[in-house]
């Protein structure tokens, strides 16, 4: 499982997280896979592209998972 640090930020948008971690090639592709219901947050399908992801949440897509840390 990969980890993503928020640093001094309180959250990251879901579509940005997928792009930043290299799970999608672009923000546009991230929005497409989110809209298609292919992404889960804490085990539940998430279709909000700008869903705010906070520390301790786990995002999964295409067999890979990212744990967000503070």
TrEMBL record:
<dbReference type="InterPro" id="IPR036986">
    <property type="entry name" value="S4_RNA-bd_sf"/>
</dbReference>
<dbReference type="GO" id="GO:0003723">
    <property type="term" value="F:RNA binding"/>
</dbReference>
<protein>
    <submittedName>
        <fullName>Ribosome-associated protein</fullName>
    </submittedName>
</protein>
<dbReference type="Pfam" id="PF13275">
    <property type="entry name" value="S4_2"/>
</dbReference>
<keyword id="KW-0694">RNA-binding</keyword>
């Amino acid at each position: 499982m990969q980890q993503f640090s928020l640093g001094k930020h309180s959250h990251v948008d879901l579509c940005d997280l997928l792009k930043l971690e290299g799970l999608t090639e672009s923000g546009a592709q991230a929005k497409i896979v989110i809209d298609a219901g292919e992404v889960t947050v804490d085990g539940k399908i998430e279709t909000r592209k700008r869903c705010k992801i906070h520390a301790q949440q786990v995002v999964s897509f295409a067999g890979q998972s990212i744990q967000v840390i503070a």
